[in-house]
Amino acid sequence: MYLSCMKHLVKEEQYQKTKAIVVKFGEPGGTGELLQKKLLERSDKTYNWVYDYWLEDMYLNQRLALPVNSNPAMVFPKQNFKDRKDSLRFAAHLITGVLEYKERIDTRVLPVDFARGQLAGTPLCMKQYYRLFNTYRLPGHKRDTLVIHKPGSIEQEHIIVACKNQFFVLDLVVNKKKLKEMDILTQLEKIVKMAENSEERQPPFGLLTSDGRTEWAQAREVLIKDSVNRESLAVIEKCLCVLCLDNPSGMEVGDTSRALLMLHGGGHEKMGANRWYDKPMQFIVGEDGVCGTVCEHSPFEGIVLVACTEYLMKFMTGSPSKMGRATSVSELPTPARLLWKTTPHIQDLLKASAERLQRLVRDLDMDVHKFEVYGKEFIKKQKMSPDAYIQVALQLAFYRCNGRLVSTYESASIRRFHEGRVDNIRSATSEALAFVKAMTDEKDSEKMKQLWDAINAQTNYTITAITGLGIDNHLLGLREIAQELKMERPEIFTDETYVASNQFILSTSQVPTTVEMFCCYGPVVPNGYGCCYNPQSDHLLFSVTSFHGSTETCSAVFIKALDEGLVEMRDLCRKSNKPQSIN
Length: 583
Ligand code: COA
Description:
44% helix, 14% strand
């Protein structure tokens, strides 16, 4: 399967070399057989043989900065706040919803999810939900750690509020009483006031979390020499979530600018330092109505994030704010501002982090596009899988921009398995290549046949991946078990084709929503695209990212090609109008 995924993506000579390596690896009594045996032994001893390997490979070993490169964001509908107080009311209501949702998690009353779409009806593993509010990604010199906090005393429950780059502790239980929404609002008002006080202002330490993981780990080592910093870090690392109260960014508020503000905060001069990127759940409430979440990705997938945020959105619109009615905790202590001890060396570190974040901000080329010509209902009417159709359209767009296809990643949920996260649907199939070529050269009847072949290949790969039979996790397992056995890295994993197969120039993911909001994330390689899409009945929403630094990419050009290709595909379907069944 690996060979057939890569054959048309590398030069013939390289392919022949890879084929020989793969055949040798798979020979009876060869390295592959030994590693497979060891992997089977591992699967007997673990709940999920790939989970740890996958988590390290996908996230914890990665050294790139979290904003843009790793943390996805969910952009909420633009809010129309009358004034700051109005935005704080929204924030208090949101946090009340978070606490209600957390209670559902803690009391285990969340209903089990069931698969939809392909192979609908199977129950899905719920473990990711139990990591929404009790996890923290701790930076390490070579590898980060996903810390999972055990449930502590409820009295220690707190959130961190970021305002003007200052961090405050908002205790959620005072005098053994849980804070009501009105209390939360009172505390937020106090925090905003305290943040105004320039005499007590602390340096923007959140910036350090926006840096490369090794840089941040090194900086953290310097910080923790001082007990004041140690204590502040400990409080942040144990919070349920971070609430960022943003000032107006001054940017024109559109879908793209809102997405940018979620992903990187607009850099240190805007809201980029008003964040703590290690914390998995970070809510942003901007005075200018720009709201959403930016999430550390290692504990959960976008689909779980959607479930949580949709709950919150429905809570916000469905249950009126309880400001007036609730009895409040009478004596509310002033929330504590987190203090930092700084030195000239730490100041230099902050400056360096700020500069690196700024570079990332300047480099990100983002385009959020609503394709309104049709949506998934049209595709379903053609008796085609909407997801497969969109993937084929993405291949067409890439081909038209670059004249070739490249290793593509589409996340496939494997929550059918205990602790399952994702595997990869390799969407750059040979059938997709034949189709995109046919779209330039062939007659309509030929194009339609190629489209069907491409859709069928994509749909079949999807089913393969979601049932745990994809190749990426398996190859990863074989590679990692060789490492554990201290074997020299088998040639199959040092081969040029393997390296290319893991350079995901096109990194894609479907994150559908049922309420108005959308997800976005950055590219995973310097010359690549990140493309998150949200298929709706009558339109398709795409968030496309790339880096200005690459001469090979341009988000607007990609969007234009995508737009045109989608229209051509519809016209082709309409002309042919002969639905066939999937193999
Ligand atoms: N004819 C008509 N309708 C069809 C069809 C066909 N041939 N094939 C599928 N459909 C319908 C489905 O029944 C489904 O209907 P629904 O909207 O009523 O549920 C709908 O079209 C969507 O199905 P499809 O487009 O095939 O996709 P899917 O929902 O099965 O999703 C994946 C495919 C790969 C996206 C999904 O399995 C998955 O893994 N999602 C998780 C991705 C993820 O983790 N993202 C976040 C990463 S951070």
